[in-house]
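=== How it folds ===
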Amino acid sequence: MINAARATFLRSFVLLSAPSIIVRSRIRWISALLPPDPMVVIDHLHTFFHNRGQPASEFAMVSALKFCSSPSQSEQIHSLLTKSGLDSNIFIHNSLINLYTKCGHIGTARLMFDSAPFLDSASWNTMIVGYVKLGRLEDACCLFEEMPERDCISFTTMIMGFAKSGRLIEASEVFREMRVAGVVANEVTLASVIPACVNLHAMQDGRMIHGLVIKCGFERFVLVSTNLVHMYAVGSSLADAEFIFNEMPEQNIVTWNVMLNGYVKSGCVDSARELFDRIPTRDVVSWSTMIDGYIQMDMLPEALVMYREMLRAQLRPNEVTVVDLLSACSHFSTVDEGWQFHGIVLKMGLDCHVFVQATIIHFYAACQQIYLACLQFQLADKGNVSSWNALITGFIRNNMVNSARKLFDEMPERDVISWSSMIAGYVQIEQFHLALDLFHDMQVTGLRPNEITMVSVVSAIAHSGTLKLGRWIHDYICENSIPINDNLSAALIDMYAKCGNIGDALEMFHHIRDKTNSICPWNAMICGLAMHGHANESLSMFSDLQKTDIKPNSITFIGVLSACCHAGLLDVGRRYFESMKNVYSIEPNIKHYGCMVDLLGRAGCLEEAERLIESMPMKADVVIWGSMLAACRTHGNVEIGERAAESLEKLEPSHGAGRVLLSNIYAEAGRWDDVLQVRREMQSRRVKKLPGFSGVM
């Protein structure tokens, strides 16, 4: 409560000193003051009147203006200052400009700025700050350009404004201009420009700014060092991030979370957990980051345990965490856990968010609960394209491409994801001409495809074998400035190889080789060379891969083993096959076993090939038995050939090519009665050998 003396003073101030201002009550005046302490402005005004004509009076008024936040109160104090003749005082005048910008009256602030008899750097800076806070960067730029003498505050304000609005190049240019002008940066300047370097992937510039931080002694500021940790963590320089983090005299929760996120993004989940356990006081971000780390490493059980520990710590998860866990349940098709998170979504009231609705639809579709996905779609917001896209993707994932197309045709509005999903669906079921027709329809709408769209389109062209169309699509990608990421470059390499032009495939690979961080382009090139019979070049490419930091995967070894088959490199093939498990911890799948059976069969090691088939952890398929049968014909092994033909017939009784091969084996062994018997069986069962064909044009 305000005591009686102060209330009487305030009333007499309002009525006597500014009689033109109507104030209905003391309560209205007081309630307009800046919280949390409404007495601050009143105390400063008391000091102002008590020291009229003295320097303390001016300082008291500047302080009162600083703590004032009400527009109506601003006008009252402004009227008082005008009547008192103090509005021409530069300090008070600047405070009034600041007050109006703070209240959002930028027009009034600009009028005061333009009408000022004298302006100092604080006047310019106050006005620029006002424009930046309101997002009026163009006005701030114009004023900044007109400013006669710019100081650290001017430059820093513009850097912060550009960085906040995503205009990162301009933020960097202003910083360079600041350095050229000889203006010394402060800790706020550097803390603002470091994130710009991060988002521009300008690591070299970031390192130079780090040097400036050390030179100026700003590493003691938590904000500056935290931003440096973030810069190195996202820039794949985790060792540098760790060094700065460990050298910091103090870390706040943001610093801990930034370092934790660095470990997670680098896949160092064990280091992340060790750091997580050391965090003094964890917040929701800490827990969510650790959960996300486990999810990224496909460690769903650990993520669920972490989630339960988070609940025991009395922390409420945010929508991002819940959606991440629900998406992970989709990936692993864990229906029971997903149902529970759907319930949590409903309890938290998150089902009103469009992206959450789409995630739930995707979850049920991924778990082959397509009926529940459709039911969720009926409950979702039809005005947003995300739910439509989620169900279309779900239909395609469940091989219901016709249902996906029906829903696609019913969509009120389609985006690039809708078109890309539908095109990918047709490629998935090998309806390549429909995929290309749909792409042409997309072009007619004027919607610009992205790199995901083009991966499916290029794949469709690769299977059609039309080189002319493949070159056209490559030109289309370049002319429309569609980013060529690792997946798209791999698709282009694969397309050129499958269309019979290994030279263009190599040219494409060498163009992107030093830029890629993914195994995909390497796989496309290794497999392409092997497919064209360039075994030595394929294996040489694999040797080059081993010198990089990129790890081969199962697809890589399909290409390598295929190359060994073409070149007849039995011992080399054996070594690579064994290294899959022993060196690279890759479990061979049926395709790898198929390559080895083919390699052993071509080399005449039929008994070893048969033993390998018997030792396989999965049952041999038609391809493997067919390869075995062909090898038996080549090497004239009737006994193993009969067993291979018998196994092949059990898998596919109508496999005419297998019966023809067995017949040829008997013929070459001079067993004409058996030849006649096989031929009669084929006629009685109406088994025919399908003719071969080529799609290359």
Notes: Confidence is low (pLDDT under 50) at residues 1-38. The chain is about 75% helix and 0% strand.
